[in-house]
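G., the chain you wanted modeled:
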Amino acid sequence: MAHGQAGTGQSASAQAAPRRGRPGYDLESLLAVAVTVFNERGYDGTSMEDLARRLGISKSSIYYHVESKEELLALALDRALNGLFAVAGEVTASGGPAIQRLERLVRGSVGVLADRLPYVTLLLRARGNTRTERRALARRREFDQIVADLVAEAEQDGEIRPDVDPAVTARLLFGLVNSLVEWYRPGRRAASASELADAVCAVAFDGLRIRRVSRAESPRTGPPATDSARASAF
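Predicted structure as tokens:
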């Protein structure tokens, strides 16, 4: 996917006008609970009865907001994907060296993960068992291509090591980002999104960047000559 196409990641479901909810039950709170249950039980292992039981409402109250369980899944996956594509769009429009844009993309993606952790977790667990999941995985591949394109451009600029395929580098880089869902839990003692981004970038980019050694830092070919050694040389 070319850089200029980052904005095409917007889905139709995200553009649909939200329904007005009954007093006490809005779509936002329903979606948050549904995502929690999907992550706990798996999407396939969750029924509308399970959701109604967790919410303490009837199934008909859920159907007032959405037509199906899969619509809840689509809304949840789009919440994660739209955040990632928004970051990609901002990075694409920002200009500057590819290595800087790549780092901004990583930082922004960490921010989306921290802010929308349950939704990103659900996205990363999608396996393509439904049409909605397959559409989400296709959008993920579009995003992965944006990353790979930036890696390839930074490599051409001589900013990152050329001995690893850009697609592999992109997967390793975002594998590090995505691993945060396994252990990061927001809270008073948790690192902030900015601190997480600093840590990820320090680990990832220190290994990716080509280190330019100045003459002052160049290693010596041997120990400095002693006075007696200098004398014997003449």
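Residues 1-8, 12-23, 224-234 have pLDDT under 50 and may be disordered.

Shout if anything looks off.
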